[in-house]
Write a structure and sequence with these properties.
Number of domains: 1
InterPro entries: THAP1/10, THAP_Znf, THAP_Znf_sf
Strand content: 5-15%
Organism: Astyanax mexicanus (Blind cave fish)
Number of strands: 4
Function: DNA-binding transcription regulator that regulates endothelial cell proliferation and G1/S cell-cycle progression. Specifically binds the 5'-[AT]NTNN[GT]GGCA[AGT]-3' core DNA sequence and acts by modulating expression of pRB-E2F cell-cycle target genes.
Structural class: alpha+beta
Pfam families: THAP (PF05485)
Subcellular location: Nucleus, Nucleoplasm
Length: 103
């Protein structure tokens, strides 16, 4: 079964040779997990068992959210998120449109 990104509206798939890396929600760090949940517009009271199954692709993080290799170090096979990384918030396009064009 091919896993897809659980970010609302994203259809990236975790397949061989995909340019995206896929990342699990932080379940043990409650404060960070709440930030991830809020960024995706998921209800904060969603059970941890459900959150454990979710994955996000690297498209929803900035380059600064990933560990970098030092000069002279081998390139990492997969991108690794920093422990403080939070995905970009899900934007309600209708609200964004109203803010931009009706102001």
């Amino acid at each position: 079964m091919v896993r897809t990104c659980d970010y609302p509206g994203c259809s990236n798939k975790d397949v061989a040779d995909s340019p995206q890396s896929f990342h699990r929600f932080p379940v043990t760090d409650v404060a960070l997990r709440k930030l991830w949940v809020l960024a995706l517009g998921i209800h904060v009271d969603t059970k941890v068992e459900k959150i454990k199954k979710l994955r996000l692709c690297s498209a929803h993080f900035s380059d600064d959210d990933f560990l970098s290799t030092c000069p002279g170090q081998r390139q990492m096979k997969k991108r690794i998120l920093k422990k403080s990384a939070v995905p970009a918030p899900q934007v309600n396009k209708t609200v964004a449109y109203q803010l931009i064009y009706e102001a």
